[in-house]
Amino acid sequence: MAYDIDMIKKVYNQIAERVDKAREIVGKPLTLSEKILYAHLWDGEPTTAYKRATDYVNFAPDRIACQDATAQMALLQFMQAGKKKVEVPTTVHCDHLIQAKQGAAKDLKRANETSNEVFDFLESVSNKYGIGFWKPGAGIIHQVVLENYAFPGGMMIGTDSHTVNAGGLGMVAIGVGGADAVDVMAGMPWELKFPKLIGVKLTGELNGWTASKDVILKVAGILTVKGGTGAIIEYFGPGAKAMSCTGKGTICNMGAEVGATTSTFGYDDSMERFLRATNRDDVADAANEVREYLTGDDEVYANPEQYFDEVIEIDLSTLKPHLNGPFTPDLATPISEMSEKAQKNGWPIQVDWGLIGSCTNSSYEDLTRAASIAKQAVDKNIKAKSDFGINPGSEQIRYTAERDGLLQIFEDLDATIFTNACGPCIGQWDRSDRKGEEKNTIVHSFNRNFSKRADGNPNTHAFVGSPEMVAAIAISGRLDFDPTRDKLINEDGEEVMLEEPKGLELPPKGFDVEDPGYVAPRKDGSSVEVKVAPTSERLQLLTPFEPWDGKNIIGAKLLIKAHGKCTTDHISMAGPWLRFRGHLDNISNNCLIGAVNAFNMKTNFVKNQLTGEYGGVPDTQREYKAAGIPTVVVGDHNYGEGSSREHAAMEPRHLGVYVVLVKSFARIHETNLKKQGMLGITFANESDYDLIQEDDTFNFTDLESFAPGKPLTIEVVHADGSKDVIKANHTYNENQIEWYKEGSALNLIKKMNA
């Protein structure tokens, strides 16, 4: 039986009436995305046809999921909201704070010793406020959600950008910052600009070495890292129906890498099979009763150009295996072209590591397809030329894979089986063959490959592929290995070829597990005491941010002008910094240390206008704050792409940055800035970015009349006394301006609950 089945049935009981009403109001057939959005309006039954990419809309998500790194700050904020219990089903998953090093047992033991303070805090807060808790080792949040909580036609939010993985089970699942989650936990509406819609029509059927991962690798190459911003990507067509549910999840998961709000598929037989295989017959039966409302209308899929803002068509029968990278997930290369491209760009051909897992590709099907390649290597006496690491997606998958002999196959190739956790995917990797200045290559089945993400080394070239392609390349030890045509030499000196991968959609003997790792909260948690030691280096109770004084910002100094790609990894690094995710002051010591200073092309090296000397970004900013001087951060396009981590907004806010002025924002980061009471604005004229000089001072001359749709005027004063007056646009609506006035959205919630 499913968790929260009464809530799911409630959604299904009202979906027909709400969707029918929405279709009547909109006056045309509806996509699946529109059906789910209109069925989850905060005000209930639809009364208005919303304009895409324009109208802000209040929604009522069905559930929330938080991973341990972001849950700390989210729950620290929720503790300030004045509520006795969360208002919607919520879960916390401990998957980020487990470092991959020696193997599952030793790594998990070490994590429980080094992060026990954080795990105990999360479990006690969960117990107190009615939140389901998944212990360390239980699995990666998004795989656990897919196996236990996701349901067709539902809406959920999660404090991780890859919450979108649940689209593989027909949800609208969206990554958010912790402050957004706190709103919903506190029983308030969740606001989202009504998304644009991108339709991807899939024809044909996957075959040979091509996997579901190759679909999103291809789409990433088409849309780039910002092409999906502000949009939901909806997949449909015969090719979509032919895919497994977990394959759909893989595609949705990596939609975060093109900036999409989320991605989704219509309910079909593969989803029903997955629900029943994961002991959710009750959900499948309920979904079947409203099946037509859990997919797009027939007319939409027959004539998609009339209903989507953009349509992409991919023939799966001709789609080739891809590797994307290095340093960005949208640099797509068919494996057949990798040899030429790698040579041209000077990418290291030797592959040191092949890593399989992450929330993107750690399902039973993924492991079987990769294991089918590994088994061939064992049987054909081929020794793997690269090191191997495997992260199963959940304890249920690990237990079942061990029972069915899959893990033993990898171990026969000397692979290390890491904990059911994120591990190297989010920088939690103590790499055994640490590299220094030497350029090196790794391949993995993860979703992101930004510089330094996996191992902290800027010289590591990381490439993204399917689990089976990662296995083949790791066995060959060469980036330019094309298993569709290239041969290998085995230990007997014989030429052999790897045959096409074979996989199982679901385990023939069913899933099995002894202890899934779930801890239910107390029915009454009022007596639970949550303790945070004042001397803790890991946890710190929050102090509310100061409200806006209602005056223009005058005399603000430039902190940094960031050059090029500036992701949330650059603004607030993960890896070893994850240990401070619950301590705002300590983690603020990594604020913008990865951003490249446009004036000297160095990281963490900016000019202090008070002293004329150069220093680290956090140190310099702390001096400005101590002197009571506001500061401005200037950035390029798609500023804040990547993870949902709100620390990238909270850290500069905590340190005294007042304004972030960029060419364009990634969606989640822009919202996070707004939630934390920051002024996040964009150049009205992008070329004005070039006017900003190292010693500039900024005067915001009309902020006192801050209003929706009204651009702001900025007087930029240069060191020689000359000035440029520029305009900046913003997307703040009336409610968001109230967040700004109060100092943060949380301050407003506390005021309303007082």
TrEMBL record:
Coiled coil: none annotated. InterPro entries: Acnase/IPM_dHydase_lsu_aba_1/3, Acoase/IPM_deHydtase_lsu_aba, Aconitase/3IPM_dehydase_swvl, Aconitase/IPM_isomerase, Aconitase_4Fe-4S_BS, Aconitase_4Fe-4S_dom, Aconitase_dom2, Aconitase_mito-like. Pathway: Carbohydrate metabolism; tricarboxylic acid cycle; isocitrate from oxaloacetate: step 2/2. Keywords: Iron, Iron-sulfur, Lyase, Metal-binding, Transit peptide, Tricarboxylic acid cycle. The keyword Transit peptide applies. It holds the Pfam family Aconitase. Its EC number is 4.2.1.3. It is an enzyme of class 4 (lyase). Residues 34-477 form the Aconitase/3-isopropylmalate dehydratase large subunit alpha/beta/alpha domain. Its cofactor is [4Fe-4S] cluster. Residues 557-686 form the Aconitase A/isopropylmalate dehydratase small subunit swivel domain. It catalyses: citrate = D-threo-isocitrate. GO terms for molecular function: aconitate hydratase activity. PROSITE patterns: ACONITASE_1 (PS00450). PANTHER family: ACONITATE HYDRATASE B, ACONITATE HYDRATASE, MITOCHONDRIAL. Belongs to the aconitase/IPM isomerase family. This is Aconitate hydratase A. It comes from Mesonia sediminis.
